[in-house]
Design goal:
The structure is a homodimer of 206-residue chains.
Chain A lengths: L14 H21 L6 H8 L3 H7 L3 H26 L5 H15 L4 H10 L6 H4 L2 H16 L5 H25 L2 H5 L1 H17 L1
Chain B binds a DNA duplex (30 and 30 nucleotides) through α1, α2 and α3.
DNA sequence: CAATAATCCGAGTAAATACTCAGCTTCTCA
DNA sequence: TGAGAAGCTGAGTATTTACTCGGATTATTG
C-alpha cells in the first residue's frame, strides 16, 4: 500500500460540522498557498481555522486526505470552466476552433492560480492524485474528440498527436506567461501569439 | 535568511576524501531518483554510499547542500550539451535553425532524465536553486541571441517573444513526450512534429 | 619516527510534526 | 426532557530525521 487512504473518516451531518469542514478546507488552502506542502502542518491548519487539531482529524484521516479534498474541488471547477469555454463557440471554422481551445486553456488558469501552482508542483507525488490532477489528459481528450467530430477521416493516431501538440503548447504557453508576464493574460498578447503559432499547424495537419 | 547555506563545510584535499565525496554524490542521486526529495534521508544516503553519516556532514553542511551540489553538476552538463547542439549546425536556413533548436532541447533531456525530473519537480523550492535550474531562461537567451544575429532588424520585443514561444514549446513537447511515449524520442516522431509546428511560425514571424 | 593534520565513525540528541484518545459540550428526536 | 448521538477539545504520544561530537584511524610532513 503506497498511498494512504483519502476517504473521509466521518461524514459531517449537522450544519455545524459542515461549516467546520468548510472552514478547515479554506484554512488549508490559505496555508498551502502561503507555505507550500511541506511547511503546511495539520496543527497550523487547525489553528488558522480556529478549530482544534482533533476536529480536523475527525473528518480527514490524514494530511494527504486534506489536500486531496482541496485538489478534488479545484479540479472540478477547472473542468467546468474548460467545458464552458469549449461549448460557447461551436462554430466550425478551424480558426475559431483553435481560438476556443486557447481560451479554454487560459480560462482554466484563471481559477485560483496560486493554489493551482502548489497543487501541480508539489502534490503530484501524492498517490492517486497525480492522474486526476492531470488536466492535460482531460483537455487533450476533449480536443481529440472534437477533432474526430470535425474530421472523421483523420487517422486516430494522427488525431491523438495533433491533440497532444495543441494541448501541450497551449498549456505551456499559458503557464509560462503567468510566471513570466502575468499582464500578457489580460492584454491578450499570449492569446494572439498562440493563435499565430497553432492555426497554421492545425490547418496543415488536417 | 530563507535558505540555508549550501557552501561546503570543508574541502576534500586528499584523494581518499575526494573519492568519498564522489561516492556520496552518486548515492545521493540514486536515492533521490528512487525515493524523491522528501523520502531521501541523509542517513540513507550515507548508508547507501557505505560511509558514516558523520562523513557526509563533514563535507555537506546540510541536506540541501547535498542536493544543490548534485543539481549544479547536472546543470553544467545540460548547458554544455545545449551549446554543443547549437554550435554544430551553423548553417543559415531557417529550417536548419529550428531543427538545431529542437535537437538541442531533445539532447538536453537525454542527460539523466530521472534525476532531472526529481530536480525540476521537487527541488525548486530550495532557495537559490530555482533560478539556476531554470534551463528555460538559458536556452531562451541563446535563441534570442541567435535571432538577433540572423535578423538584426527584428524589434527586440518581438525577438524575445519568438524566443519564448520557441523555447516553451520545444521544452514542453519534449517533456511531454518523455512522460507519455519515451519511444518518440528515439523514432524522431516528436522531432518531426515539432519542426512541422515551429518552422511555419518561425518563417512567418521573421 | 613523532607530531600534526585530515578523515572517518556512529551512537546519541533535539526538534518537528502527524496523529490519538479520553472526556467534555452541543445537538437531535422520540 | 433526557438519553444517546454527533461534534469538539488539546495535552500528550510516537515516530521520523537532520545534525552533533568526542574519539578512533589513517595520511602527511619536517
Amino acid at each position: 500500500m503506497r498511498g494512504k487512504s483519502t476517504t473521509p473518516r466521518k461524514l459531517p451531518t449537522q450544519t455545524r460540522s459542515r461549516q467546520t469542514v468548510a472552514t478547515i478546507l479554506e484554512a488549508a488552502a490559505q496555508v498551502l498557498m502561503r507555505n507550500g506542502y511541506d511547511r503546511t502542518t495539520t496543527n497550523l491548519v487547525a489553528e488558522k481555522a480556529g478549530v482544534s487539531i482533533g476536529s480536523l482529524y475527525e473528518y480527514f484521516p490524514n494530511k494527504e486526505a486534506l489536500v486531496a479534498a482541496l485538489a478534488s474541488a479545484h479540479i472540478d471547477e477547472l473542468i467546468a470552466r474548460i467545458d464552458n469555454a469549449l461549448q460557447i463557440s461551436e462554430e466550425e471554422t478551424p480558426s475559431s476552433f483553435v481560438g476556443a481551445l486557447i481560451r479554454a486553456g487560459l480560462d482554466a488558469h484563471r481559477v485560483n492560480p496560486a493554489l493551482h501552482k502548489v497543487l501541480v508542483e508539489q502534490v503530484p507525488r501524492i498517490g492517486g492524485l497525480a492522474e486526476s490532477l492531470d488536466i492535460q489528459t482531460v483537455l487533450q481528450q476533449k480536443i481529440e474528440h472534437g477533432l474526430h467530430e470535425r474530421s472523421p477521416h483523420l487517422p486516430p493516431t494522427r488525431a491523438r498527436m495533433i491533440a497532444l501538440v495543441l494541448e501541450t503548447c497551449i498549456e505551456a504557453l499559458t503557464h509560462r506567461a503567468i510566471v513570466e508576464k502575468p499582464d500578457w493574460l489580460e492584454t491578450g498578447e499570449i492569446e494572439a501569439e498562440a493563435q499565430l503559432l497553432l492555426e497554421p499547424y492545425f490547418q496543415g495537419a488536417l
